[in-house]
Each structure stands twice: as C-alpha cells, then as structure tokens.
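Researcher: We plan to redesign the surface later, but first we want a full-length starting point. Tokens attached.
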C-alpha cells in the first residue's frame, strides 16, 4: 500500500436504529469520494462524571475554591453563550 496524505475532520452525529451514521451537519469539504471513518463511542460518561465530581469534592487540591476571595465574578458579568 502506498503512503497517502490524510486530512482529519472532526464531525459529530449519531448512529440511528438502522445502524447508519447520521452527521449533525454537512462535511466542510468540497469533494466526493471514499473516506476512512473512525468511530469513537462514548463510555458511560454519566458514571465517569460522577466519579470525577466525587474525587474533586474530596480532594484538598480544590479547597481554595471555598475561599470567598475566589468569588470574583457574578451572574451580571459577561454575556450569555449562544446555545448550539
């Protein structure tokens, strides 16, 4: 097999009930042809997040966040983010 240049494009989508990949948006390329697809499936992210939050809650490295001097922003600061 000859070496080829490969360009990576990150896209998001879902696998439907027919096991077909459906992208959220069209790909940002102007050509058609064969592609190589690598699918990254999320693990049980809810469990991972709970574990991380519990670890952070009991880790003394984050104790500084309880200090009132760290509260430098209010809800009036900044602008709301645009929802995607």
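Model: Full-length starting sequence:
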């Amino acid at each position: 097999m000859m070496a080829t240049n490969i360009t990576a494009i990150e896209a998001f989508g879902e696998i439907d009930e027919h096991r077909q990949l459906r992208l959220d948006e069209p790909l940002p390329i102007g050509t058609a042809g064969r592609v190589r697809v690598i699918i990254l499936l999320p693990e049980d992210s809810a469990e991972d997040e709970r574990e991380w939050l519990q670890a952070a809650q009991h880790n003394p490295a984050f104790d500084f966040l309880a200090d009132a001097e760290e509260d430098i922003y209010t809800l009036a600061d900044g602008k709301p983010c645009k929802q995607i």
